[in-house]
Design brief:
This protein has 169 residues and is α+β, with helices and mostly antiparallel strands. It is built from four helices and eight strands.
């Protein structure tokens, strides 16, 4: 039995990355604050063997720009969330390229920005909590972003604004 479990775990570890597929999930801003900051976004992510989606980058669907994000970050960012927040998956916004601009827009004055997302699911709304780390080392909640599901892109969105809607699911 032990050998079977070890073999199964090894197979899952190898098959996980092999079964991953890239997904492009589009969302529209659902409130005034979110619309003022981001309008719409497309998340580029990998869907794993068991259906979980891990986000790799955020692409602006209304303007040119994208920011790489990577899963993980300091636990202090999660502790800065407002009471009652249900988002738990922590991502670090890359300070390279457009990530710097995204960080400045979400958390003006912070040295580093983090996004805390709920589980990303097809056809479901998305809430993202932006948290910043300031020069004094303190983590502060910056803004709550609320999005409604728009659809899934068949391919990566074009580099500029587009009036065509993604493929809905």
């Amino acid at each position: 039995m032990r050998r079977f479990a070890i073999t199964l775990l090894t197979l899952c570890a190898i098959a996980g990355p092999a079964a991953a597929e890239t997904r492009y999930l589009a969302y529209d801003a659902s409130d005034r604050i979110t619309q003022a900051l981001t309008r719409g976004i497309t998340l580029e992510g990998d869907r794993g063997l068991f259906g979980a989606i891990t986000v790799r980058s955020i692409i602006s669907t209304s303007a040119r720009g994208s920011a790489d994000i990577r899963i993980g970050g300091p636990d202090g960012a999660r502790r800065a969330l407002p009471r009652g927040s249900t988002e738990t998956i922590l991502y670090t916004v890359s300070p390279e390229g457009d990530g710097r601009g995204l960080s400045r827009a979400l958390c003006p004055g912070s040295e580093q920005a983090y996004l805390v997302l709920g589980r990303v699911r097809l056809g479901r709304p998305l809430t993202a909590q932006a948290v910043g780390r300031w020069a004094d080392g303190a983590f502060r909640h910056c803004v709550t972003l609320s999005y409604t599901w728009r659809g899934e892109w068949a391919a990566p969105p074009a580099g500029g604004p587009s009036d065509s809607a993604p493929i809905g699911r």
